[in-house]
Amino acid sequence: MEHLTLLLGIVIVTALVFDFTNGFHDTANAMATTISTGALRPKTAVAMSAVLNLVGAFLSVEVAKTISGGIINEKGISTEVIFAALVGAILWNLLTWLLGLPSSSSHALFGGLIGATLMSVGTSGVNGNTVVTKVLLPAIAAPIVAGLAAYLATKLTYRIGSRTDEKATAKGYRAGQIASAGLVSLAHGTNDAQKTMGVITLALVTGGVLAPGANPPLWVIVSAGLAIAMGTYLGGWRIIKTMGKGLTELRPQQGFSAQTGAATVILASSHLGFSLSTTQVCSGSVMGAGLGRKGGVVRWSTATRMFIAWGLTLPAAAVVGAGAEFLTRQGNVGIAAVAVLLIAGSGTIWTLSRRKPVDHTSVVPDAEAEPAGVVTTAIAAVTPPPPAGAPADLLKATILSPGGTAPEPTRPATV
Amino acid sequence: MHIDWQALGTVFGVSLVATVGLVGLFTLGIVSLSKTSETSGSAGSAASAGSAIVARSGAYVCFALCAAAVSYGIYLIVA
């Protein structure tokens, strides 16, 4: 490891930070419905999810050799590009967390990579077809598949169980839900922790520390697993709140159907070669389960905001990634500037989040008769400040740069 | 552009069938288990005790199948 340069060190730390944001951004996928139906207490749920994520990171022997799944040509990219991509992904993850919107962390990473690669190598570095087949199409298919499955499953479970006492069966449903939530956590650990291991390994390869095609060293596996587990344990309570209570109200049967649907779709898709985003699958199944109960309501205003965030994830992360790459190309000063901007941006978002803190006390099941609008209006009340605040300024600051230079990207990278 | 409709269709079909099947199975288990607790509550004749045993073992079969599905899920993750 004596070849570790400062830049490489920065990239590794940034990758671990991304892994950490990935963890707390995606806690909701496995645990939001488990918490909102009261199957597990909030702290217990995130602890369980964290442990399973950590276990998941060690489980798979299949190494994440390609982090982008062919979306970009990984051969030509330099360490700076990876750094810029990670900056874009982290900032977008933090911003959507501030707004409490579940969005795909993988798409954020893809977006950052695409933006940074475009800025660095030009359009030849990005495989447009793969973007459509691996990002756009799955983004449309995931919520439909998961939603339909959860919808039908909810219908069925209400039909079969219509003549039983709801209180007597709730315990059973909760147990089932914990099992399927555990599966989602485990799958998340294997997929997403591997992604970060892949990023760090790629950075080490581009930095010349590892031979191309090498497996991630043990310390990479351990640190990536720990980062994602710590992020998960911290709990993205804002997103958990949206997914568990903001989109729809879930009863134990629905929570069980939603979580089982999500686990099934995630496992089926990752093993039949059509990868779907965990976040989008889980959001879809929550909505499907919400619609499946007679009288169930989905709050479409929240859902619409979530869909918009999905659509924006890739381009927004790409723009930030491109801007960051533009700066890093200016040499060490630029890299330092990007690092400072990243820290400042994260700090600002964190400060803004303290204004309206959302923690584990906000996500427990309510006393029965909560009027339907409360959560929606609360979220609506939280939403306005951020876009006007500092994250927007920060975005502007980084967006400005690619605006002027984007039209001439065919030049080969001189980095 | 090559879109793998077959893979998409397979994911769609497998997910739908597996989800609905599993949830249905689990619900059957829960329902029959709650029925046994109802019947055992009333002073049972031999016949109702017999049906309670059937319902109870049926429930355990359902849960065992669900547990098998979960194990298969873990196997998929590990493999």
Automatic annotation (TrEMBL), chain A:
Gene Ontology molecular-function annotations: phosphate transmembrane transporter activity
UniProt record, GO biological process: phosphate ion transmembrane transport
Residue ranges of the TM segments: 6-24, 45-61, 81-101, 108-126, 132-153, 196-214, 220-240, 307-327, 333-352
Topological relation to the membrane, as annotated: Multi-pass membrane protein
Pfam family, one: PHO4
Coiled coil, from the record: none
Keyword terms, alphabetized: Membrane, Phosphate transport, Transmembrane, Transmembrane helix, Transport
GO cellular component: membrane
InterPro entries for the chain: Phos_transporter
Cell compartments where the protein resides: Membrane
Family to which this protein belongs: Belongs to the inorganic phosphate transporter (PiT) (TC 2.A.20) family.
Entries under PANTHER family matching the protein: LOW-AFFINITY INORGANIC PHOSPHATE TRANSPORTER-RELATED, PHOSPHATE TRANSPORTER
The protein's name: Phosphate transporter
Organism ancestry: Bacteria, Bacillati, Actinomycetota, Actinomycetes, Kitasatosporales
UniProtKB/TrEMBL annotation, chain B:
Annotated TM spans: 7-33, 53-78
Entry keyword set: Membrane, Transmembrane, Transmembrane helix
Top-rank taxon: Bacteria
Name of the protein in question: Uncharacterized protein
